[in-house]
């Protein structure tokens, strides 16, 4: 059913680079072939439920600015159904292939876990019915284990085992809903799995709890036949001072310790990468280097603010470098570009939601096309291969394969006088600028 929420109701179409309409795609041509795959299949865009339909427009210093009609009233389940109508209307208008959600974004929390689960099942029924006639599919689902006060000291890492058990029950319901709706992945974000002070924290114990929690989830995933990966989303801090999923490298070490690398991969986000002191493409490269790349939250932070602003991604150069790495490895399998992004609290018109997604989808498309061209012309890959070409020689390959001893390499060094070569950083930065 139509929601009558948006002024613009027609499905947004590709009009080409000369279009000046904010509600037309200028670069995102979903059927355009890029390296043997449709652009839509490369991008796998997903609208996230929480920022688009649940966030009221508040910030630490001010309250609600959006005044959405489904945010006020006494019948919480009816309001959730109204919100679902608006959401699926937006999915249709944007013509996106996927969406994503937290459990409490789509269904109201009840007075008990049983009541909350019943509410989630009711909305899952509605989603399933709507998806029968809609194009959109579920990229991933997840459970919110950080907003309710019961999780103020964490969920899986909580010192109270009853909170741990409650979190298990909540996640079971969320992955059941995800599985029923054909979700391609299931995401875990440890928003409060960390600490505010070490004075009251047994870190080793909490990490063991978290490892056990995820191991149980992986076992259950196999039991119900959920074929997609479990994804962990790294973030260094905020709301905690230190979170155990600090960055990609930290999570990878954790997964290896608890023998989870076969079933759990990484869901990476630009804003979280920056907060960890890394670039977005750094985190993507780390994931690929360890065969644990899964999916991406596509957004950006504000360079002048040291917190998670979740703005819509607009930096074509940054996106191009990420896609350059992804295309080298074949791109997404089960993952996609999830818009974990929110419009600014002053963007109060309903159509601002549409405009923000369109602009960011175009920025991503421009980044993809720039990456395709850089790869086709070997703009970055050729200089990189030349820099490491010495390692392709048989005697140096023998070192990497373990066929040469430490003493043999040291003996060889006695006859060498290697001289440094330029890293050509400025040249390469100029190369990238030619494409974006």
UniProtKB/TrEMBL annotation:
GO terms for molecular function: magnesium ion binding; xylose isomerase activity. Binds 2 magnesium ions per subunit. Keywords: Carbohydrate metabolism, Cytoplasm, Isomerase, Magnesium, Metal-binding, Xylose metabolism. It catalyses: alpha-D-xylose = alpha-D-xylulofuranose. The keyword Isomerase applies. Its cofactor is Mg(2+). Coiled coil: none annotated. Homotetramer. This is Xylose isomerase. It comes from Fulvimarina manganoxydans. The lineage of its organism: Bacteria, Pseudomonadati, Pseudomonadota, Alphaproteobacteria, Hyphomicrobiales.
